[in-house]
Design a protein that fits this description.
With about 150 residues, the protein is mostly beta strands. Helix content is about 10%, strand content about 45%. The chain starts with a helix and ends with a strand.
Amino acid sequence: MRTFVLVLIATTITFAQPAVNFSGRWQLESPTGRGGRGGRQILVMNQVGTDVSGELTSGRGNIGSTAPVNNELWDGKVSGSSLSFYVWRGNDRPVKTFYKGEMNAAGDQITFTVAGGQTGRGGAAQTTGTTTPSSGSTQELVAKRAR
């Protein structure tokens, strides 16, 4: 019986993976596009179990506008070392921008695939009320843990 317990404990320790924690402050560097948009964004997340909440803000803020800005993360979920959430972007005609990220082994970098959002020429990508993008551009972004 004692041998069985020791084998069980050893097996549990061997197969137990350290929990990935996405909580904290992350810095994303977006490529500058048309009209000079892009640049640094700050992602602040709080993970509780498999749920993630937080906000994604631009380094520029909302300069020159009195329109409200929604920076909140929606439907944030963690599965293993993967993270997914979406944000609403835009003032007059907000659109969903979907983020799906994978944490590296060191825990200091997340590589995101970003889909949906603006499609260029002022048009918005078509998105539905679901939590998956139906069309729009896709790009990769890297977030590094900010100090």
